[in-house]
Amino acid sequence: MKKLKIVSMSKYLPQKIESKKLEEEFGIPLGWSEKYSGVKTKHWVTHETNAFMGAKCLTYALKKANLKMDDLDLIISANATYDYPIPHQAPLIKKELNDYGTQVPCISIDTTCLSFVTALDIASYLLDGKRYSKIAIISSEISSKNLNPKDFETFTLFGDGASCAIVEYTENDESFVYGAHMMTKEEGAEETIVKGGGLRFHFKDYAYNPEDYSFKMKGKNLLRLAKKYIRPFIEDLFVKCGVTAKDIDFFIPHQGSKMGLFLFEKIYPEFKGKVANNLNTHGNCIAASIPMALYDAIEDGKICRGNTIALAGTSAGFSIGGIVLKY
Amino acid sequence: MKKLKIVSMSKYLPQKIESKKLEEEFGIPLGWSEKYSGVKTKHWVTHETNAFMGAKCLTYALKKANLKMDDLDLIISANATYDYPIPHQAPLIKKELNDYGTQVPCISIDTTCLSFVTALDIASYLLDGKRYSKIAIISSEISSKNLNPKDFETFTLFGDGASCAIVEYTENDESFVYGAHMMTKEEGAEETIVKGGGLRFHFKDYAYNPEDYSFKMKGKNLLRLAKKYIRPFIEDLFVKCGVTAKDIDFFIPHQGSKMGLFLFEKIYPEFKGKVANNLNTHGNCIAASIPMALYDAIEDGKICRGNTIALAGTSAGFSIGGIVLKY
User: In a designed cystine with A285, which of A161, B113, B211, B222 is the match (CB 3.0 to 4.6 A)?
Assistant: First the structure.
């Protein structure tokens, strides 16, 4: 049991996009997006940067918790996409607020789609060990700039968005983290990839082309890995946490793909009716998907104080991770 | 006191480069590199990727500690430069080893030049809180691909290299972390930058040019920030750790620049003769600088078991961070 309480959450969505309109514009068979990707609408940035969306979320979450920047003692950016190659994302979010009076430190944590879960796991140890007392975790993701309209699978699937959670050390036992678990099967490390633009395929040597500079997913291979490892992984997570499937009031899986969510519900039929699903209206928003779905579930009253909830998913890497907490 | 012991360290350097040769080749006044950047030789990659150098270091460090991959329970990549935009670096390092038998999880932590210090700080809480018992922290950095030969300051300063530390939970009190401290003054967030190639200046919209796609540093502004904040920061760090400057047997500052190191020795004359300096032979290797200097100091017998050491520095962000440990 690690002493962590989620005190407030927020969400930012850029402009809404109808999948139908994208299909018409880019010559994708009508209905393809919803049928295969499960996405009817999503949101893509117009003017927004990662820092802009992250700062909006941080401001809302602080306001909801009746806190100001100086009350925080750590800002974690938990993201896989970034404004600049250098520096990392967290200080850029803080800079966007244009309020330079504080010294709140900024760090960035990246486990691709699991970044929020990893950051929450790490934050629980930093809080419980009394390194910090209030931490903001921000996942702000822009996928839309790295999509290839000819790759229907990724183009119709990915969305943009951001979310922030403020977590604090709490003396009482009403909210806490039961535990967390993670595994990496690196043979899948290149099966979800943006190949061009890093140091291996440098933009100096490889001219821009939508094929090499966009998201690529080997969906079937990823589902094969997920199918093999998810059930034993979740069992291990629950054992580590001292809970059983029956104890879980609400389950938030990463909104990775329609097939992934379908597979999860098939593997764990006992969670029927208790599984978050915002894929149809948000798409896969990388690390922002899990906290946005958590925010929605709290706002919609699907999660109440005292509920036991699990957040879990797969991520490019290939990793599986999860955390169980008493909200 | 957090229970963490550094059990082994390693280092990898790619091909050696004489600054003199670079000066001749790129029309830089002879002697400029050593005079202004303080760099006589450094190392730049030929065939190596970040993952390649990181994997070499991980292999050496495991061998020195007489451990195998399966003995680890976490791999942290603590770096600011990366092979691909997606996925993050840690699983790519593990994949390079071509040994897919384990499920050791992989996460990446980025605070630019302070990534190793941040990872060590976080690792101390994960070990002390018994989330993990053995963690590999790897900093593998390639700066040379993002340098502009016309910008003498950065072109002559930056080097490539990698280092790995394996840290473990220890029951006895001979090795531990006293404490750590960090602050971010985000008004300096864009004063050390690689502007092009992220989402804000996307390679789709901004054709490659060495000016926008290379490291840029506003050296004078950074020194001004460092001058203002470093002394009070180090005082705070020592107070948090319950130590005084006299207790420090060896100090490892980030090898940021000749002026930065000079300034540090001026601010803290009491450390004279106890400060690591490998800038002349390695250049600034971003997050790999601090662990490489730590490795060298241990190998050279400047740091022995039981010594109290401090690692600290500034990083793009702009942040200052430090950690004090009993080695």
Answer: A161
